[in-house]
């Protein structure tokens, strides 16, 4: 087992975008929109979490190359009364792609939203019967010489 040897590959512009969503109770989404989440703004904190996570990808994913990221953009929006979507775009001039960094940014953003809203999502038994993270995927990849 080893990291892929990219020594001979040229550094080129790399870009990847990923997205995913979290299903929440409509009441929780309404609280987010009204700025009434006790821990603060889940969207603001999730954006920072996504950026930091992208920068730490090689520490989280075994055999992933550490990359000099030039840009990480995380966007979060309410899609409908019970769905929030996180999008991340990561850029670098590197010898290998940035898909993992985009996926990690989305994942960390979604997990942060879950963490900040979990008190509103639990049922009377302390379970999460409706909360779910869905469809984390790469939606675009660019490699330019």
Tell me the CATH architecture.
Answer: 2-Layer Sandwich
CATH superfamily: Molybdopterin cofactor biosynthesis C (MoaC) domain
Mean pLDDT: 96
- The parts where pLDDT drops under 50 for at least 5 residues are none
- CATH T-level topology: Alpha-Beta Plaits
Shape: elongated
**Beta strand count:** 4
**Helix count?**
4
In angstroms, what separates the terminal alpha carbons?
A: 29 Å
Read across the widest sheet, the strand sequence of neighbours is 2-3-1-4
The helical percent reads 25-40%
Question: Pairing-aware structural class of the strands and helices?
Answer: alpha+beta
The level-1 CATH class: Alpha Beta
- What series of H and E elements makes up the topology? EHHHEEHE
Strand content: 25-35%
Chain oligomer state: single chain
Largest sheet: 4 strands, antiparallel
- State the domain count: 1
**What does the radius of gyration come to?**
17 Å
């Amino acid at each position: 087992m080893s990291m892929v040897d990219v020594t001979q590959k040229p550094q080129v512009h790399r870009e990847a975008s990923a997205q995913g969503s979290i299903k929440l109770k409509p009441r929780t989404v309404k609280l987010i929109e009204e700025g009434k989440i006790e821990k603060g703004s889940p969207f603001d904190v999730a954006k920072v979490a996504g950026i930091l996570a992208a920068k730490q990808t090689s520490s989280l994913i075994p055999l992933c190359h550490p990359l000099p990221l030039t840009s990480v953009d995380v966007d979060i929006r309410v899609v409908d009364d019970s769905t929030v979507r996180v999008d991340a775009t990561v850029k670098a001039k590197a010898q290998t792609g940035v898909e993992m960094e985009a996926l990690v940014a989305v994942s960390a953003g979604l997990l942060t939203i879950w963490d900040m809203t979990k008190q509103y999502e639990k049922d009377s038994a302390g379970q999460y019967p409706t909360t779910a993270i869905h469809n984390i995927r790469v939606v675009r990849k660019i490699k330019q010489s």
